[in-house]
Write a structure and sequence with these properties.
By secondary structure, the chain is mostly beta strands. It is built from one helix and eleven strands; from the N terminus they run E-E-E-E-E-E-E-E-E-H-E-E. The strands form three sheets. It has a five-stranded mixed beta sheet with strand order 1-3-10-5-8. It has a four-stranded antiparallel beta sheet with strand order 2-11-4-9. A two-stranded antiparallel ribbon has the order 6-7. It starts with a strand and ends with a strand.
């Protein structure tokens, strides 16, 4: 398992301000990165902001039918070292804690689970549903920016290189 940071994760600051803020982040996933347990850190949920909506967009990443993707909040804050055996996570936000020794999505801070898009040589999109309204589960962190990440729950049977992206909306709380 590896944490893959999108190229613009730290060079493109999170959008903040009054009213809705729309952002789009993408990463080209190589066939070698298409491995169960790998996590792609893509977007930023700014402090004092609520996640209002999110769409996951992927190119055809599996020429067969095994790929499963999950979207959630990473157990490491923005601009802090990733969790490791020598420096465990110190995540405590929105009613959830995580002190794991490896990068992971925070349990209970799921945004999209079990997405099967990107299979059978077809691209696709997935979004949150009315029963998965993320702001209820994720809450608002008043002091720290959090990272929105995509986890490969099940790797592709026959992996293909392609883009994995999120388009999302946040609003100041």
């Amino acid at each position: 398992m590896a944490l893959i940071k999108a190229a613009n994760l730290y060079t493109k600051p999170p959008k903040t301000g009054v009213g809705p803020n729309v952002d789009y982040r993408a990463h080209t996933l190589t066939t070698a990165q298409n491995v169960t347990g790998n996590i792609v850190a893509l977007g930023i949920l700014p402090a004092k902001h609520r996640l209002v909506d999110l769409r996951l967009e992927v190119d055809p990443l599996d020429t067969a039918t095994a790929l499963v993707l999950n979207v959630g909040i990473l157990n490491t804050y923005y601009n802090e070292a990733e969790a490791s055996a020598t420096a465990p996570a110190d995540y405590s936000s929105g009613g959830a804690t995580n002190t794991g020794t490896a990068p992971a999505l925070v349990s209970g801070h799921n945004i999209i689970t079990g997405a099967t898009i990107g299979r059978s040589s077809a691209d696709g999109t997935a979004g949150i549903t009315a029963t998965e309204i993320p702001s209820h589960a994720i809450g608002v962190d008043t002091t720290k920016d959090r990272i929105i990440a995509v986890e490969i729950g099940t790797q592709a049977t026959t992996a293909a290189e392609g883009d994995i992206a999120i388009a999302y909306v946040t609003a100041e709380d």
